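hey can u check if this looks right to u? its 225 residues, i copy pasted from the old doc so theres a chance i mangled smth
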Amino acid sequence: MTETPTHALRYSTVDGEHRHELEIKRSRFITVLRRAETEDEARALVAELRREFHDARHHCSAFVLGPDRTTQRSNDDGEPSGTAGAPMLEALLKGAALDGAADLSDVAAVVVRYFGGILLGAGGLVRAYSESVSSALATAPLVRRERLRLLAVDAGHGVAGRLENELRTAGIAVLGTDYGPRTATVRVAIADDDGAAAAFAERLASLTAGSSTAAGLGTSWVDVR
């Protein structure tokens, strides 16, 4: 799927859903992290957990969306203002993800709190909600997403198979080959930067003696596992 270009070339996100629980001064803090790419998906998680944990006092939330992390929201859900949603959001933004980079996005976090009868105070709540999300992130499975440039390479039927194999051997992601009446089209994906494009063009010229060229098909975000 072709998407609007962004500044980011890669970012990390949660691989599916992950749950983690802490007990702090008899209060239970159940953190649920889920991958979400839209605000509707993030808000759907909150709604689901309200139904699942219907007897809990608070369902605080925060989410970060988009490769450039342009959408950021948080909600205290009845806790004193600034003591729950904001520290949860900060934990998402500052938490180290893959390769030690703080680039986590497309993730929604909900912390369900069962009150244990002991007041934590404003400072205690901030620490508890922040620690809940940070601890969940530390054990959550993550996946890297990269923005790739999609290219179409035309080749004769007789050489398409060999070209596909040689490109794969060179470490280039081959998405597939489409065979038409007269020619075949090998679809590939490379890193979305001019250096990678120049290197691919040079390799393609070498493999085909200059007989094939690559046409751009746009860009797409893909999971790299």
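The longest strand covers residues 142-156.
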